[in-house]
Amino acid sequence: MTSRQERRKNDSKKSGEKSQTNWMMWGGAAVVVIAVVIVAFVALQPAEETGPIEESTLVTGGSYIGDPNAPVTLVEFGDFQ
C-alpha cells in the first residue's frame, strides 16, 4: 500500500493539473467570447455609402445573346491564338 505522504503528493499533482486545465479552459472561453464580440461589432457596422454606379457602353461589332435591355450584361473577351 502507499503511504500517506505518497497519496498527498499524488493528490497535489492531480489538483495542480486540474487547476492548469481550468485556467486553459477559461482562457479559451475568453478568447472565443472576444472573437464573437469583434465579429458582431464588424458585422453590425453600417455599410459605407458609395456614389452612383456609372453605366458602361458595350463594344460594338460583337455577337449578342439575350435581351439587350437586361439589367446585367456579361462581356467576354477571348484570344484563341
From TrEMBL:
Segments of this protein annotated with the region Disordered: 1-20
Question: What is this protein's name?
Answer: Uncharacterized protein
Keywords from UniProt, A to Z, are:
Membrane, Transmembrane, Transmembrane helix
Q: In which residue ranges is the amino acid composition biased (Basic and acidic residues)? A: 1-17
Which source organism does the UniProt entry give?
Answer: Candidatus Lucifugimonas marina
| Membrane-spanning parts | 21-44
- Presence of the UniProt keyword Transmembrane in the record: yes
Ranked from the top, the taxonomy reads: Bacteria, Bacillati, Chloroflexota, Dehalococcoidia, SAR202 cluster
